[in-house]
Design a protein that fits this description.
Pfam families: SRF-TF (PF00319). Helices cover 62% and strands 8% of the residues. By secondary structure, the protein is mainly α. The chain has 2 domains: 14-80, Transcription factor, MADS-box (SRF-like), CATH 3.40.1810; 87-156, no CATH class. α4 packs across α5 (130-156). The longest helix has 36 residues, at 87-122.
Length: 171
């Protein structure tokens, strides 16, 4: 049976808050230990108690935590914050991603417009300007695809070749 979602809010009762802190701290240290053992990665945790800010609890030990922090400090600055972004970098990467999405959507819209223009042309309406060139190239591409499909089908089904059909587009 699923538990109810815990409402995250400040616990006003001192006794309840201390008990909750101890329980959550124990669970946090257990998770850090599991992460270290299961994934084989060096890890440490530093937890300060609200009543004793000068006496933090260090897991697994002070020596192991010092060694891990020393290894982090020995990394070149690029390795230390490899995945860290400042606000400007984050926004520029997000902007690049959005511009790529915009280009993709614009391309899809243009292709849809050309298809609509081709359908109008097939329906007997006229097409003008740059649309005419794009409709022509789209129609030629479709004709090539149809010819390739016919060729593939005749080869795969061992049928006698069909008589040549002129698939020239006449505008």
């Amino acid at each position: 049976m699923a538990r109810n979602k815990t409402k995250i809010a400040y616990i006003t009762s001192d006794v309840t808050r201390r008990r909750t802190f101890q329980r959550r701290k124990r669970n946090l240290l257990k998770k850090v230990d599991e992460l270290s053992v299961l994934c084989g990665i060096p890890s440490c945790a530093l937890v300060t108690t609200p009543g004793e800010p000068n006496q933090p609890e260090i897991w697994p030990s002070i020596v192991d935590a010092d060694n891990l922090i020393a290894r982090l400090r020995d990394l070149p600055s690029l390795g230390q914050d490899k995945r860290t972004l400042d606000h400007e970098s984050f926004l520029s990467k997000d902007n690049e991603r959005l511009e790529e999405q915009l280009k993709k959507v614009e391309k899809e819209n243009r292709e849809a417009e050309v298809k609509v223009a081709m359908m109008r042309c097939l329906g007997g309406e006229g097409v003008q300007g740059a649309d005419l060139d794009e409709v022509g190239s789209l129609a030629e591409g479709k004709a090539r695809a149809v010819a390739e499909r016919i060729e593939w089908l005749t080869k795969s089904l061992y049928l006698a070749p069909l008589p040549a059909v002129d698939l020239q587009l006449r505008l």
